[in-house]
Amino acid sequence: MAAHGDENGTSVDGRHQFIPVQKQDLIEALAATGHTGQEQKDFRTFCGFLASYYHHSFYSELTELKDLHAWFAPHGPKPIRRKPMDLETAYLELIATFENVMTQAAFVEIPPDQVEALGGEHPLLDVKTRTPMDKYQSVRIFCRGQTSQTIERRGRLGRKGVATIADVFDDVVILVRFKPEAGDDKKARLSWNADARSNLSKPGTVLIKYFRNISRPELPMLLPDVRVVMKQKDMLLLGGPALLGGVPILLNIIPALSVLLVVAGAYLGYKGVVTQDQMTKAVGAMSALVGAGAFMFRQYSNYSHRKLRYQKELADNIYFKNVNNDAGVFETLIGAAEEQETKEALLAFHFLLMEGPFADADSLDKRIEEWLMQTFDVDIDFEVSDALGKLERLGLLTHENGQIGTVPLTEALIRLDSLWDQLYDFKRPAQTAAA
User: Fold this and answer.
1) Are 119 and 223 in contact (CB under 8 A)?
2) Which of 252, 284, 314 represents a domain boundary (last residue)?
3) Which residues in the chain show pLDDT less than 50?
């Protein structure tokens, strides 16, 4: 229930407040629940009217997010203003607006200590990652719609895969701000140039990425400039044969080095006589060196091949799950916030209209949660206080005899129409009207 909710978008029993139902599916289900004839048509009109109202109300936030992010975007023109905005002030405004939209879209932020611990071995892809946290000034990860799923890890050499239970998020949004320019620190600048494999990881920029259907172990792979490194067992598989095969070669090379030096000195004009036996040993030593070089090259090729295979697994696993990036994320998030706000208001209005008035908010909250479970098989913590607040601000809520109700449907349409008209209420100047 709403009384159990907190500022992080979850209740104490772990349920989320995100309504994982398409808006149109919700409208169809509500319209078919008790509404008939003309009333059903009026209810659909009300739903469209309400959705349009929230779409308009979010326009200013969308514009502000795009304008503020332009100061930190890795590409594109910077804002042109008469007085340049202080970057830290712009960043704080960006974060404040961004957090507000994330809350309205029912996203939950992953705690900072869990973000700091990202990296290490990946239980699903059999890889190990290294996250360059020293390059980030700030990392924020928000998720929505968490479920537990059994995921089967692919087996090697035809072996059966291993089943792993992991938390899977329907939606994940990552905001990363890179540290500012290193300034006079030459070592830091060289480190930046070595690690930044693309123009995206510029000092001081802010990257925002939106992903879908991401398991918890995959989170470190979503961060920019994450590296795939060799696991210990892979090092043993490659290093063990290299060590065992390299020792005999090394033992054969050391005695022959003196022979190679004598032969090289003779050919360069230094004193000394090269015998047939020494020439044979020299040829043998050269063969050993060539063999050692070939062995080292083969081991390096094996290492490179395995690393490329891991990089491909990482890329294949993430490529198809990316929804949007940077300023484009704002369009997606604003749309998600609009839908969440609309769905909450519609649910509260419908049940107050059809089954109200209710004795208190908890009774309404329980009824809506029961209906969502029965109709869509979703178990959520409905934000009833937030939904009632929306109806109150729209002038659709009534309070009589200590009970909560709503105005009739036709009256609700009239009030929404009046609110819409007031959005652009321009008055003609008196002198123009008189003329």
Assistant:
1) no
2) 314
3) 1-13, 82, 157, 184-198, 433, 435
Sheet of 322-325, strands arranged across:
108-109, 136-153, 162-178, 206-215, 322-325
Last residue in a domain, options 314, 348, 374: 314
277 and 368 fall within a common domain: no
| Residue 99 located in a structural domain | no
pTM of the shown model: 0.71
* Helix 59-69, helix 327-355: angle, nearest 10: 160
Residue 162 lies in a domain: yes
| Strand ordering across the sheet containing 120-122 | 120-122, 127-130, 227-229
Cα 239 to Cα 285: distance, rounded to the nearest angstrom: 24
E strand intervals along 253-334? 322-325
Examine residue 395 and state whether it is found in any structural domain, yes or no. yes
8-state DSSP, 402: T
Regarding whether 216 and 127 lie in a shared domain, the answer is yes
- The residues with which 108 forms a beta bridge, in sequence order, are 143
The tally of domains found in the chain comes to 3
- Say yes or no: 111 and 130 in one domain: yes
- Orientation angle between helical segments 37-57 and 23-31, nearest 10 degrees: 150
- Cα–Cα distance between 266 and 258 in angstroms, integer? 12
| pLDDT given at position 122 | 56
User: What confidence score (pLDDT) does residue 57 get?
Assistant: 87
**In this structure, are 282 and 341 located in the same domain?**
no
Q: Which residues constitute the domain of residue 128? A: 107-227
Q: What's the rounded Cα separation, in Å, for the pair 275 and 255?
A: 17
Residue 269 lies in a domain: yes
Q: Are 284 and 256 in contact (CB under 8 A)?
A: yes
- Report which of 82, 318, 116, 325 is spatially closest to residue 205, judged by C-alpha positions: 325
| 238 and 223 within one domain | no
Say what the pLDDT of residue 268 is: 63
Query: What pLDDT does residue 75 have?
Result: 74
CA 233 to chain centre: 30
> By C-alpha distance, which of 318, 316, 310 is closest to 214?
318
Based on the domain organization, do 336 and 306 belong to the same domain?
no
